[in-house]
Amino acid sequence: MSTTPRDSQDDPTTPAPQGPEAPPADDAPVVEAAPPVDDDAPVVDDAPPAPAAATVPGAHAAPRPYPPSAPEPRDEAPLTPAPAPLGTTPPPPAGFAPTPVAAPTPTPAAVPTPAAVPAPAYAPEPAPTPIPAPVPAPEDAPAPEYRSRRDVPEAPAKPGAWRHVLAALLGVLVTPVGLLLVGVGIARLADIAGTDDMGTDALGVGLLVGGLVLLAAVAVLGIWSPALPITGGALWGVGLGIAYLAVPDAMEDLVASITGDVPAPADQLAQTAMSGYLVVVGTLLLAGGIATAVARRRGRRWAEQVAAAERIRAPR
């Protein structure tokens, strides 16, 4: 014989839990108490199983002789209020008191103190000089002229040192001839000066004119090379003239020892040299040669500067 345990809640003798009693509802069903079960009644284990009753909601609950207890309140999540429409301020919830907010106190702004900037250990690099933009040529500007190789003149060839050597040699050979002719002509004309024979010595006049032509050629050839007048004037003019002025007797003895006898032209040249003629003519030739050399050099530099300026200004 087996005994089936019963639920403590289904036993009517079990005391109900203490709690607030709720009044019965008007529409609640009335449940009658079941008759007590006799413990001495025989229990038949071999009885056929009872048919399964239809499942009805709430059929498993046993009838209770006491009124049902009130349902416990459930913790429901607070409802989130719907967002207020734009442009309106939602009302504060009940029991909410706004806390007064104190006005912010303005804080004085801190004035930064300029710190001393240390001097750089090196000098700053200069700023680059801006390059000006090229100026476009005006529309009415003349078109550049293109020249062929035939139109462009070639630079003249620079003469070598041989011309100076040849000019010095000509100065040594031609200058004394001109000085001698001029000296002899002056001496012949000086002999008949103040007499009735004045103007009748054609030889003296011819020698004088020939000597002047040679000396003029020596001075003009200084354009080709300044060495020609400088060499002739310094050697035969200034040098020989100073010697005749300083030691005239020694110069006459030297001429006599070379020629064996003092010829008339040499005697006439010595007379003019002692009067300072050679020094004057030699100084003029020397000064002319130096002036020609300086002018050539300055003219060359000036021409180079002019050519450079024209090259820069020429349209490209």
TrEMBL record:
Bias kind Pro residues: ranges: 14-23, 80-141
Superkingdom field: Bacteria
Region of interest: Disordered: 1-155
The keyword Transmembrane helix appears for this protein: yes
Compositional bias segments (type: Low complexity): 25-36, 44-63
Keyword Magnesium: no
Segments traversing the membrane: 165-190, 202-221, 228-247, 274-295
Keywords for this protein: Membrane, Transmembrane, Transmembrane helix
Signal peptide: none
Protein name: Uncharacterized protein
Source organism of the structure: Actinotalea fermentans
